[in-house]
Specification:
Elements lengths: L9 H32 L6 H32 L1 H10 L5
Helix pairs in contact: 1-2
Length: 95
């Protein structure tokens, strides 16, 4: 890429944004895991099985979100390099 690169194409911006969205979704699913764990830990004996099932489902969703994020990071590193390089030139020093 030349020192005078033009602004990235829309596809490059989307490739750079996808991992950010996936990260946010993964972090939200982590919060859901902790919430489900908290509910399970204070569940009555009668509700413990259902609360545990909700916790296990939250763990499954968190695992799936983590896998999506990981896959996007691995795949997107090369594709988004041009977009991040251009963006870095647009930001003031120290940002």
């Amino acid at each position: 890429m030349s020192a005078h690169a033009t602004a990235p194409h829309r596809e490059q911006w989307l490739a750079a944004a996808d991992p950010v969205i996936a990260y946010a979704e993964w972090r939200m699913s982590c919060t859901s895991v902790w919430e489900a764990y908290r509910e399970w830990s204070k569940a009555t004996r009668a509700d413990a099985n259902l609360a545990h099932a909700a916790y296990a489902a939250a763990l499954d969703r968190e695992d799936a979100a983590a896998r999506v994020y990981s896959r996007l990071i691995k795949r997107g590193a090369e594709r988004s390099r041009a977009a991040w390089t251009w963006l870095g030139r647009q930001l003031p020093d120290g940002v």
